[in-house]
Design a protein that fits this description.
Number of helices of chain B: 10
Shape of chain A: globular
Structural class of chain A: mainly alpha
Largest interface: A-B, 84 and 83 residues
Radius of gyration of chain B: 21 Å
Oligomer: heterodimer
Number of strands of chain A: 0
Order of helices and strands of chain A: HHHHHHHHH
Mean pLDDT of chain B: 82
Chain lengths: ~250, ~250
């Protein structure tokens, strides 16, 4: 801990940078996934494109994806943009499927009823469908948040400055405390992000069931479950088998 | 496009495949290393995670543990875990065995959560009435586990293995950065030498390997589905169907 105390400035700066690098993909994947999830529920072809495409992209390991991106976007190999774009791709790949499941989880009779009382299709989507899909969307974005924060540190290999620097520097200089601090701060950050998302969820969805409900049927999906990220806090969201079958996002 | 063609040309150039050439070549050696690390780690992890997952899935005990554990593990930064273990084993083991042991343990730790979740949810997905029927027919608990629950849950169990394999393939790539062999070595050498052919060639190899393994295991997942039960047993169909939406098959 002496190491941490004498390097607070470095840790603080790397943490801030880590947060910056993680926030963009988390927000982007949430925003982009909703239209994609909506499309995926339109017809089987679009669904195959969105879901299968997402899971294929998710299959590409992180380091290769970072260095392949300069082919597709005009960046240099050692450029932070590659990291951010790659994390957006992973985030969208997981989140699009969550969003599709979330929108599909809204009961048909509810939608029929809202049409019957005069909601236009757009109003129905924004004022009925999206809010009711909220809990499942929240579960999905919590998974994306946790795994994005864990993944950012791989970016140090392509020269990004974030908490991963503590792993690299600690290993090179033989300071175990530095690596440990890096892991702990990274875990703490993931926890803080998760709490913030839960808090935002409570603000946005005051009607949603309080935590600890037992409506969930089968919480753990094929290795990836939104619920899993939370210790079941949003389990009330119901059965979601989100995410490509990749276990833990962290690669 | 030129960069891609150049990297592809590099890949198929026989010079990169000549046995005995200097690291990170020849490619086939790195490929074999990559597969060997992956296979060893996945086998060890399976020996730990599958029995535990079967126990939890069969008895229903420790369900909260699986959910909490898989969630918490997702927050663990791969690179940090890897470097931590490499350093810790560096203190106690000799210079040449430490990286191998440390990295393998890191791979195993990262492979366990998805296999555990797969084994557990595979058993959980089996219809309770089916299990009750098996018990009523006089099957022992062991027979129920091995002849009813595991065969019916197999697609999800294989799904967990599939996720674990991909996780390990990805982590082995990163481990090269810490001096281990494997295909990632080609990428990190390329970054060091500022040679984009090497970087992209290595990246394409890893991607191809990951997609290939994923495809093979996806086929295995499909092949292990019990006939007539496929629509219920695979849990991929748990997303509720609605009359106003076309019936969909995820992962089709």
């Amino acid at each position: 801990m002496r190491w941490a105390l004498s390097n607070l400035d470095l840790i603080g700066q790397l943490t801030l940078n880590h947060v910056r690098l993680a926030v963009i993909p988390i927000i982007a994947s949430f925003v982009l996934s909703i239209p994609l999830g909506w499309l995926a529920n339109r017809n089987a072809v679009l669904r195959a494109v969105v879901i299968t495409g997402g899971s294929l992209l998710f299959t590409i390991p992180s380091l290769p994806l970072f260095v392949i991106l300069p082919l597709v976007i005009p960046t240099r190999v050692l450029d932070e943009t590659n990291l951010v774009v790659a994390l957006c791709i992973y985030g969208v790949a997981v989140m699009a499927r969550s969003a599709a499941d979330a929108l599909a989880s809204v009961e048909g009779p509810t939608l029929d009823a809202s049409t019957a009382i005069g909601f236009s299709p757009a109003a129905r989507f924004f004022r009925v469908e999206l809010p009711l899909a909220g809990p499942v969307l929240l579960a999905g974005i919590r998974v994306v948040s946790v795994s994005t924060i864990a993944l950012v540190s791989v970016g140090v290999i392509i020269g990004s400055s974030n908490l991963g620097y503590l792993f690299q520097n600690g290993k090179q200089r033989g300071i175990l405390a530095e690596v440990v601090v890096g892991i702990l701060v990274s875990l703490l950050l993931a926890l803080v992000f998760d709490l913030v998302l839960v808090g935002l969820g409570k603000l946005a969805m005051p009607w949603a069931a309080p935590t600890g409900t037992h409506r969930h049927r089968s919480a753990v999906g094929t290795g990836t479950t939104p619920v899993a990220a939370s210790g079941g806090a949003v389990a009330g969201a119901g059965p979601v088998d989100a995410g490509p079958r990749r276990g833990d996002g962290a690669r | 496009m030129n960069l891609l063609l150049s990297a592809l040309a590099w890949l198929v150039d026989p010079a990169q495949w000549v046995a005995g050439s200097q690291s990170p070549l020849p490619i086939q050696d790195r490929l074999v290393e990559h597969l060997a690390y992956t296979a060893v780690a996945v086998l060890i992890a399976a020996a730990i995670a599958l029995p535990l997952g079967f126990y939890i899935g069969h008895t229903g005990r420790g369900r909260g543990f699986v959910i909490g554990f898989t969630g918490a593990m997702r927050a663990l930064p791969t690179l940090g875990l890897l470097f931590f273990l490499l350093m810790v084993f560096g203190y106690v083991l000799s210079f040449d065995t430490a990286p191998l042991v440390g990295a393998t343990i890191a791979f195993v730790i990262l492979a366990i959560p998805s296999m555990l979740a797969g084994a557990y949810s595979g058993l959980e997905s089996v219809d309770r009435t089916t299990i009750d029927a098996a018990r009523a027919n006089g099957m022992t608990e062991w027979q129920i586990l091995t002849q009813v629950e595991i065969p019916l849950g197999l697609p999800l169990i294989v799904g967990g293995i599939r996720a674990a394999v991909l996780q390990v393939v990805a982590t082995v790539t990163i481990a090269s950065y810490a001096g281990l062999g494997g295909l990632g070595r080609i990428i990190t050498s390329g970054i060091g030498l500022n040679d984009y052919d090497l970087i992209l060639g290595g990246a394409l190899l890893v991607t191809a390997l990951a997609l290939l393994l994923d495809g093979l295991l996806a086929l295995a997942q499909r092949a292990t589905a019990t006939k007539g039960l496929t629509d219920r047993s695979t849990a991929q169909h748990r997303a509720p169907h609605r009359s106003s939406r076309p019936p969909t098959r995820e992962n089709a």
